[in-house]
Design the sequence.
């Protein structure tokens, strides 16, 4: 969703971010901008002494990064982009420019310089509007910078080295990442926080407002690389105010050769025009079309969604993210050799992953983004690998038959797998590899949601809990960490319990969690003050739920409670879409809204039903067994 019309102006354009920085990608993605990522090959080697102020260096580098990408895309006969955005972040302290450290010693040198002092972070940004005329590339460059002042606390040598050994400083300007561990080093920030992280979003939006909305060139007071934009806000702009930004351009002396033309640059206005190899005035140039129909970006995204999902699935199956973990940039050919696949096919897949923000691509090769390291490698604490493989092997074939599922109103296991639902369910528990895949998938989601479920309510009053269908024990282990006095029994089928040791967390005291095998529909339930049903109710038809809730209600003593973890739908039952779409797989069960859970639980003698929407994949519902003495 685009919150304001300024970013909406870019919806119908092919926008390219000329940056490999995952932070920049995230900042722009978070505000709904759709763009491709084409990292720049421009080497950050401009002669610093030729710039009179540090921000000039950042602006020029940003510009050269963006120009390199615009030219490359044009030359390679790819479709010329409409807009290329480049950025460069530097730290300036004692008149010195600090970029990314080259090694740990360099990081130490930088951090020692910043220790106990205030410094400036400058991000230079270049927005290049491209236009192909007679196969000639014409470009209009707009650039600006933003300054933020940051002060470090007095830090001990030990702390600095501990921070350096965390590995975080290496790809960050000045050797720290304010958004993560580096935030602990910082005493104050004056100015735009996102500017420090790598992209001054607010200034960028104001700059777009200037470009697309200011009524006439006479109103524009161009500033000499002033970091203060000519508009105060980008709110409340309507298309009626829109104007053709090219009318307001002025020619400049910008040299596009890739070199900073000392003396000439930075005396110009901050919008300039470039034809490949030449500088040309902008008068009479065609405007970037304002009348083109707005692209239905949401629909286009949905149309393409399957390609993106499948690219993620295949890269995960081939264990590309595992291979790249803790590795420097790796060439496509080496990755292809490792996974035993064709070089051309692998390269396409790697590029697709880079365009989706899963990998970073530089001239040196491909490497994992931070989120790939966290979520896509198979052994990470919060790995989603198991669920991704389940999605590929199990859900994908089911969804391929969605049309039949809708027409016939039933699950399509027979078409997708040549088996009936019951036989397939047996497979989950009897065929080792299917069982493990299923358990890994459940474990992925449980790990990701466990903390939010465990802390949705204060459960410290309970001494014992029983997680019915608790599978690998992921939620149980989280609960005993949050509530050290709690003991949790995980109750699940014998075939599941036999395989749980693989998922046991390392380095945690596991004694408060015990595993008991049994069938919660048939066998006696272990005694507990708190029963838990996480991702169970949505899977079963009403008759089975009746059996289960009747049993729990019967064993619950007055004052004991039941905690249900499910995605709770809104009352219209259209959100969150992740749960609504899950229903399309047509299990025999269903997703429920708050009022439906309340009604259901009250029917089985539970009162005081409280619902917490966690903002995570699972919400939490807590209810208490009626106290008979009341
Ligand atoms: O607090 C933080 N400060 C800086 C960063 C990140 O640092 C880098 C700055 O490097 P640069 O501007 O040269 O950008 P690159 O990452 O090399 O990508 P390009 O392809 O655009 O050259 C930048 O990634 C900031 O995000 C940070 O994360 N936190």
Sequence:
């Amino acid at each position: 969703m685009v919150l304001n019309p300024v970013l909406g102006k870019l919806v119908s354009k092919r926008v390219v971010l000329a940056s490999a920085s995952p932070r920049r990608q995230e900042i722009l993605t978070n505000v709904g901008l759709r763009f491709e990522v084409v990292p720049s090959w421009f080497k950050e080697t401009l002669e610093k002494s030729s710039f009179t102020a540090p921000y000039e260096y950042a602006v020029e580098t940003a510009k050269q990064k963006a120009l390199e990408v615009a030219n490359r895309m044009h030359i390679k006969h790819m479709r010329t982009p409409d807009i290329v955005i480049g950025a460069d972040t530097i730290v300036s302290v004692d008149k010195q420019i600090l970029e990314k450290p080259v090694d740990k010693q360099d990081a130490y040198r930088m951090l020692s310089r910043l220790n106990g002092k205030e410094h400036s972070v400058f991000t230079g940004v270049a927005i290049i509007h491209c236009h192909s005329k007679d196969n000639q590339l014409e470009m209009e460059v707009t650039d600006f910078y933003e300054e933020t002042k940051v002060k470090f606390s007095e830090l001990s040598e030990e702390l600095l080295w501990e921070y350096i050994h965390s590995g975080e400083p290496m790809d960050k300007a000045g050797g720290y990442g304010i958004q993560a561990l580096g935030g602990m080093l910082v005493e104050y920030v004056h100015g735009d926080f996102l500017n420090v992280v790598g992209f001054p979003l607010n200034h960028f939006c104001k700059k777009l407002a200037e470009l697309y909305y200011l009524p006439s060139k006479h109103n524009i007071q161009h500033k000499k690389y002033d970091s203060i934009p000519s508009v105060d806000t980008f709110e409340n702009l309507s298309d009626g105010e829109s104007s053709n930004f090219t009318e307001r351009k002025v020619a400049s002396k910008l040299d596009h050769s890739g070199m900073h033309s000392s003396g000439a640059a930075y005396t110009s206005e901050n919008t300039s025009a470039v034809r490949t190899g030449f500088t040309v005035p902008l008068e009479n140039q065609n405007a970037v079309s304002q009348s083109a129909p707005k692209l239905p970006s949401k629909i286009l995204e949905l149309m393409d969604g399957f390609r993106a999902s499948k690219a993620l699935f295949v890269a995960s199956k081939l264990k590309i993210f595992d291979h790249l973990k803790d590795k420097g940039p790796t060439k496509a050919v080496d990755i292809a050799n490792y996974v035993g696949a064709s070089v051309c096919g692998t390269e396409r897949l790697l590029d697709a992953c880079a365009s989706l923000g899963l990998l970073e691509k530089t001239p040196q090769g491909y490497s994992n983004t931070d989120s790939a390291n966290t979520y896509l490698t198979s052994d990470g604490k919060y790995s989603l690998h198991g669920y991704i493989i389940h999605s590929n092997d199990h859900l994908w074939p089911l969804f391929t038959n969605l049309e039949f599922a809708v027409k016939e109103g039933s699950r399509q296991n027979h078409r997708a797998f040549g088996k009936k639902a019951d036989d397939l369910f047996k497979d989950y528990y009897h065929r080792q590899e299917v069982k493990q895949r299923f358990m890994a998938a459940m474990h992925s989601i449980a790990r990701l949601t466990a903390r939010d479920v465990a802390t949705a309510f204060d459960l410290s009053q309970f001494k014992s809990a029983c997680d019915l269908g608790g599978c690998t024990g992921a939620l149980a282990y989280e609960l005993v960490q949050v509530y050290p006095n709690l003991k949790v029994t995980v109750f699940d089928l014998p075939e599941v319990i036999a395989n749980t040791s693989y998922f046991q967390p390392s380095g945690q005291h596991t004694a408060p969690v015990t595993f008991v095998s049994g069938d919660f529909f048939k066998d006696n339930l272990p005694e507990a003050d708190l029963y838990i049903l996480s991702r169970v109710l949505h899977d079963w038809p009403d008759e089975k739920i009746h059996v289960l809730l009747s049993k729990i209600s019967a064993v619950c003593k007055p004052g004991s409670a039941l905690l249900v973890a499910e995605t709770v739908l809104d009352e219209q039952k259209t959100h969150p879409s992740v749960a609504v779409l899950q229903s399309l797989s047509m299990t025999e069960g269903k997703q429920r809204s708050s009022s439906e859970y309340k009604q259901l639980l009250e029917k089985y003698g539970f009162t005081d039903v409280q619902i917490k929407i966690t903002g995570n994949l699972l919400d939490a519902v807590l209810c208490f067994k009626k106290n008979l003495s009341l």
Q: What stands out?
A: The radius of gyration is 29 Å. The longest helix spans residues 432-455. DSSP finds 22 helices and 17 strands in the chain. Residues 216-224, 240-269, 275-290 have pLDDT under 50 and may be disordered.
